[in-house]
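User: Here's a structure from my thesis project, written as structure tokens. My advisor, Dr. K., wants to see whether a designed sequence matches the one we expressed. Can you design one independently, without my sequence as a hint?
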């Protein structure tokens, strides 16, 4: 699928240099953004016993946090366009730290929904979108590799934070653990400081700016109206729904997001229900994160190859099918050894999907349209994100068994992957057909205007057309 049209006035990305420091900052901010909602599940059992919540209610903490992180996409994109990535990530880090510190004093599940879910999720949203957008400005040729390295922050932090949170829980309880976790999340401010803005290629002089301002008519209402319309389009651009490739990507992505996080949230509890010791159950998340850590940059390298990059949408659908198949096989597991095997394959599938999920959107939309597209995608994804883990928790409340949530998540993700594969074949076929129709239409147009191809002047063509009309009229007047 061809990317969106590029803006010729914008400088070509550097594909290196300080961009690698930007990748380091994005690695940290994306790591906290994706790992935090997952590792919070280690505290859920203690919080559930302390506050008297059900499985579906306790799962709603991570669900609200993830939904707020995705719903804040358009706001984050608009703020990045206005202020740049550096201040946005710094503010997001402050919000994340404050959210965890205030949540440590919570006495009700609703209070945790607001502090961890809403405030923390909005802070993670600022970190995530700003990091993705600035990578698209620093890289083009090496963009899949840069995205893979940045997205590897999620498994790295998951691998570290999972056993670390279990250690904090055993020594400080869930309240003290949230307090310490909030202090750690302030490192996102340091990550934001690394995100130096890209210098524009041509900056007009002050004299030129003054002349431009003086030459403009004093019509403040018109300028204000245009500015508001431009801001609204930047915030939420619905014109993307006219793009067939974007709609196909969005539908498949929604199906994946619905079933992606519930297996992570309930993996530790599922292992404990099988008789696994708590630390060993927490290490399953670390194993998954450790595998994911190497899969994401490896997937970026594979996706950057000349054989895979033109077919990256198919590679993405394969990753989804692989992920869904792992979840469908998980309920058959009865021993800890096979749980470790499941965690390994889960890390492979999850890492492949998230190394490609935004690269595929960049491939479809291009770097110029990507900031608006990712904002629209994330705000739509907040709904399946909000419904997925609570729906899985509701199945546990109803049946008292974790198997059904894995069946539900696996079947939804597998269906989404097959949908993407089939519809991408259809989309490529339609694009080729539309291209051929355009060529045929141009050939017909050339045949209808032979004087343009023969190089006739306009008076000569008019004179020739007049002779033809006279000839036709004479033949019409002649009796048979």
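Assistant: Designed independently from the structure alone:
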């Amino acid at each position: 699928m061809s990317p969106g049209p590029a803006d010729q006035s914008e400088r070509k990305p550097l594909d290196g240099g300080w961009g690698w420091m930007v990748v380091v900052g994005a690695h940290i901010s994306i790591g906290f953004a994706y790992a935090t909602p997952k590792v919070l599940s280690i505290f859920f059992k203690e919080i559930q016993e302390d506050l008297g919540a059900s499985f579906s209610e306790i799962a709603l903490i991570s669900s609200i946090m993830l939904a707020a992180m995705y719903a804040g996409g358009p706001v984050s994109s608009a703020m990045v366009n206005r202020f740049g990535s550096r201040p946005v990530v710094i503010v997001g880090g402050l919000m994340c730290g404050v959210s965890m510190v205030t949540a440590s004093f919570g006495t009700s599940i609703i209070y945790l929904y607001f502090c961890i879910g809403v405030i923390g999720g909005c802070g993670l949203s600022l970190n995530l979108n700003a990091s993705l957008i600035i990578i698209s400005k620093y890289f083009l040729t090496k963009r899949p590799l840069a995205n893979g390295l940045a997205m590897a922050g999620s498994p790295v932090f998951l691998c570290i934070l999972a056993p670390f949170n279990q250690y904090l829980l055993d020594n400080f309880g869930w309240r003290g653990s949230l307090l310490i976790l909030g202090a750690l999340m302030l490192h996102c401010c340091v990550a934001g400081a690394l995100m130096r803005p890209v210098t524009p290629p041509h900056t007009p002089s002050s004299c030129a700016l003054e002349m431009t301002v003086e030459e403009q008519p004093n019509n403040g209402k018109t300028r204000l109206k245009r500015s508001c319309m431009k801001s609204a389009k930047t915030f939420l651009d619905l014109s993307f729904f006219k793009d067939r490739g974007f709609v196909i990507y969005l539908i498949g992505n929604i199906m994946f997001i619905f079933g992606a996080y519930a297996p992570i949230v309930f993996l530790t509890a599922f292992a404990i229900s099988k008789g696994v010791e708590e630390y060993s159950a927490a290490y399953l998340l670390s194993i998954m994160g450790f595998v994911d850590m190497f899969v994401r940059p490896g997937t970026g390298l594979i996706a950057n190859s000349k054989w895979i990059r033109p077919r990256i949408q198919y590679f993405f659908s394969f990753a989804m099918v692989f992920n869904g198949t792992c979840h469908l096989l998980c309920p058959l597991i009865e021993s800890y050894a096979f749980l470790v095997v499941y965690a390994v394959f889960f890390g492979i599938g999850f890492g492949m999907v998230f190394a490609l999920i935004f690269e595929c959107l960049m491939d479809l939309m291009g770097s110029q349209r990507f900031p608006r597209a990712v904002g629209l995608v994330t705000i739509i994804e907040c709904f399946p994100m909000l419904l997925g883990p609570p729906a899985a928790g509701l199945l546990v409340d109803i049946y008292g068994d974790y198997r059904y949530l894995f069946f539900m998540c696996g079947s939804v993700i597998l269906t989404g992957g097959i949908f993407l594969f089939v519809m991408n074949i259809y989309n490529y076929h339609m694009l080729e057909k539309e291209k051929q129709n355009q060529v045929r239409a141009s050939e017909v147009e050339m045949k209808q205007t032979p004087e343009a191809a023969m190089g006739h002047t306009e008076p000569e063509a008019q004179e020739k057309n007049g002779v033809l009309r006279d000839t036709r009229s004479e033949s019409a007047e002649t009796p048979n």
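When you compare it with your expressed construct, this may help: Residues 288 and 347 are 4 Å apart (CA to CA).
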